[in-house]
Amino acid sequence: MPPVQESVRWWVTDMFHAEANKGGVGLLTMSFAQHVDAAQMGRCLARVRELLDGVKPGFQLVTDLSSLELMDAECVPDLRAMMNLCNEKGVKSVLRVIPHPEKDIGFTLLSHFHYGPEVEVQTYETLADAMQGYSA
Predict the structure, then answer these.
(1) What is the pTM of this model?
(2) Among 51, 54, 87, 114, which has the minimal tally of Cβ within 10 Å of its Cβ?
(3) No. of H helices and E strands in the chain?
(4) Can you tell me the distance from the alpha carbon of 27 to that of 91, in angstroms, rounded to the nearest whole number?
């Protein structure tokens, strides 16, 4: 019988979802929806810290912005902190779902400063495409 992979799920608000699969090749997924403000992003950062506590280096990150309408500029410090934390914890690759270029809101630019050169960052238009890029 194969080992059971530990999966942790938690909803901060309707605007954010985070989940971590800590077995095998680790996977951290984050989804943002509607209007995300600084208070919500602060709670998101706290939860991501908890989720990454047991994740082994070499994990992959999937970030889905498909349902995002607006993210306040005040979210940037916590977003940078999340990227730095993922980098410190050994993220191998980042797969982003950004269906329209205007939804990027700086994620690509921030990646150049907060992920190491060895971290592969790819952007997809759909979650299905991103999951095909996921290497389990």
Answers:
(1) 0.81
(2) 54
(3) 4, 6
(4) 9
